[in-house]
Write a structure and sequence with these properties.
α2 runs parallel beside α3 and α3 crosses α4. The chain is α/β, with parallel strands linked by helices and about 210 residues long. It has a seven-stranded parallel beta sheet, sandwiched between helices. The termini are far apart. It has a single domain, classed as Rossmann fold (3-Layer(aba) Sandwich). It contains nine helices and seven strands; from the N terminus they run ααβαβαβαβαβααβαβ. The structure holds adenosine-5'-diphosphate and magnesium ion. Adenosine-5'-diphosphate binds next to α3. GO terms for molecular function: helicase activity.
Length: about 210
């Protein structure tokens, strides 16, 4: 291991993850990544407010990958993103982070071939990254099986609600198992985001990295 990833070493990350981070060339975690890696319990619900560009994607992917429990076979983690571009970008980050492990992902985004997405799910994707509309389509038609999902990450919560996905989000949250962990990431915390949080998160830990202006 080179000294390049020194800043990541004190968090108990697996060698496989450290190797992937080293290959990417990242030297140390950003503040939001440090907060997530330092959580006392990865089991509890969390709300995070941190600015755009602060590294929120790895802030949730690192603990999820490090925890393991991602054996292929069926979806375990669902990540919701506001746009196709962001979902595909998150999928790309998940792929490089998991490059040394046998973990497969599926991207369920609108405007793209449904059959290909169904094949990815059938092959046993354990991490599913989707936009709310297309993800709900797969849940409703039975091609995305919710039973084994133990974690849901609502990424860019403010943008998802700005874009009018409230109904889809609620329908998805209601279709998932009751016993699950929910992490909500957002750059801002307007009232609509807090409403979703109060309704669906269980005594969340709040991590706020945005100074009051
Ligand atoms: P956010 O979701 O908060 O807007 P992203 O997760 O998209 O931020 O990250 C912003 C950029 O920073 C991306 O290009 C990402 O690859 C890069 N990045 C993330 N973590 C690190 C890190 N620890 N060191 C250097 N660059 C990083
Ligand atoms: Mg982001």
């Amino acid at each position: 291991m080179s000294i390049n990833v020194n800043g990541f070493k004190k968090y108990g990350l697996s060698e496989r993850l450290l190797d992937a981070i080293e290959a990417k060339g990242f030297a140390s975690p950003t503040p939001v990544q440090r907060e997530m890696l330092n959580l006392d319990s990865f089991k509890r619900d969390v709300i995070v407010r941190a600015k755009t560009g602060s590294g929120k994607t790895l802030a949730f992917l690192l603990p999820i990958y490090n925890e393991g429990n991602l054996d292929s076979g069926s979806p375990k983690v669902l990540i919701l993103s506001p746009t196709r571009e962001l979902a595909l970008q998150t999928n790309a980050e998940a792929c490089w982070l998991g490059q040394n492990q046998d973990i497969s992902t599926a991207s369920l985004v609108g405007g793209m071939d449904m059959a290909k997405q169904i094949r990815e799910l059938r092959k046993g994707a354990s991490i599913v990254i989707g936009t709310p509309g297309r993800t709900l389509d797969h849940l409703r038609q039975g091609t995305l099986k919710p039973e084994g999902i133990h974690s849901i990450i609502l990424d860019e919560g403010d943008r998802m609600l700005d874009m009018g996905f409230k109904e889809e989000l609620e329908a998805i949250l209601q279709a998932l198992p009751k016993k699950k962990r929910t992490w909500l990431f957002s750059a801002t915390m307007p009232e609509e985001v807090m409403t979703i949080s109060k309704k669906y998160l269980n005594e969340p830990l709040c991590i706020d990295l945005v100074e009051d202006e």
